[in-house]
């Protein structure tokens, strides 16, 4: 009897010791979270998801300038980009195709949407009747000129390979410029970040490969219309240019293009530190409140946070009825774009709650932007100064 009691007592002590150690460990983690909100933010972020879309495929060969195959070159570049990016633990790669198969344009977009991707990159090769050369990047928008329309028309014409294309694309006609107007409405929410991503890739081409800068352009690409995230179509160069076509068809050219695009994607991801994207995950109890302060000795500079809910070329009255009842709304013009912000808070914790409110109203791409006076600053810098 005595042995049984001693055994029970020993087991009870071990159980309580285990519970005590577990509780102590939990309290340590909780303390670390409150002491370092940036560390907490990083701990609970999901991976940055990139969808790489190799254009064309299967019975759709793409352009055959100088006898080269766009579908094969695009696939090799996309796969190599993915191989490079997979070395980064915080980046998850999804391909729309890994082999020589035909994938509908709408299905490519659906793959990205189902993955809740942060960035969609579609890889292509350009063509022209002249010896045009250079790499270009495109985001969805109205064609600024006939040349952009012709590029989009060529890439969009692949829908004719689909038996049910009229149903899939709501009667869209690649040959009719008027059809493009309807394409731009859905992606307008992501236009701002799409332009940033495209510009980052374009700069990488020029800085790393000394490629001719064909700048970021807008055109009505169907594959970009149905994606619910920042999206860029990359024309890596002209197969119709003898020198450039040979370069893109070579292993050296494909490796260089892949490395350059991968670098740009990483740079774009890092630059998002200026704000918090809507699909980053936060746990309410694990984010300490950090009040912002005015810069010492200068009342004109104050660190604060806003929720960006939209960006558009259209000037919209900053009234709550135009933004699903959200108030107050601030409108600021930067270049050709108007950016629309919800609220202005000095509390980081409060602005996160307001971001969730905006998301519930339908602004799924909402993200937090930090400011020092009228200047945007990176989030870690804002929180650092706010201490």
Features of this protein?
387 residues, alpha/beta, Aminopeptidase, Alpha-Beta Plaits, 6-stranded antiparallel beta sheet, 12 strands, elongated
The total domain count is 3
CATH architectural label of the largest domain: 3-Layer(aba) Sandwich
Radius of gyration: 25 Å
Low-confidence stretches: 26-44, 143-149, 178-186, 274-299
The count of β-strands is 12
Description:
The chain has 13 helices and twelve strands. By secondary structure, it is α/β, with parallel strands linked by helices. It folds into three domains: 2-35; 48-273, Zn-dependent exopeptidases (Aminopeptidase, 3-Layer(aba) Sandwich), CATH 3.40.630; 289-386, Alpha-Beta Plaits, CATH 3.30.70. The strands form two sheets. Strands 2-1-3-6-4-5 form a six-stranded mixed sheet, with helices on both faces. Strands 7, 8, 9, 10, 11 and 12 form a six-stranded antiparallel sheet that branches. A hairpin with a 2-residue loop joins strand 9 and strand 10 (337-345). It is elongated. The N and C termini lie far apart (62 Å). Residues 26-44, 143-149, 178-186 and 274-299 have low confidence and may be disordered.
List the helices and strands and how they pair.
Layout: H1 2-35, H2 37-43, E1 48-54, H3 70-85, E2 91-95, H4 105-114, E3 119-126, E4 135-140, H5 146-156, H6 165-168, H7 179-187, H8 191-209, E5 213-219, H9 222-225, E6 231-238, H10 242-249, H11 251-271, E7 275-276, E8 303-312, E9 329-334, E10 337-345, H12 348-360, E11 367-372, E12 375-377, H13 379-386
Parallel strand pairs: 1-2, 1-3, 3-6, 4-5
Antiparallel strand pairs: 4-6, 7-11, 8-10, 8-11, 9-10, 11-12
Helix pairs in contact: 1-2, 3-11, 8-11, 10-11
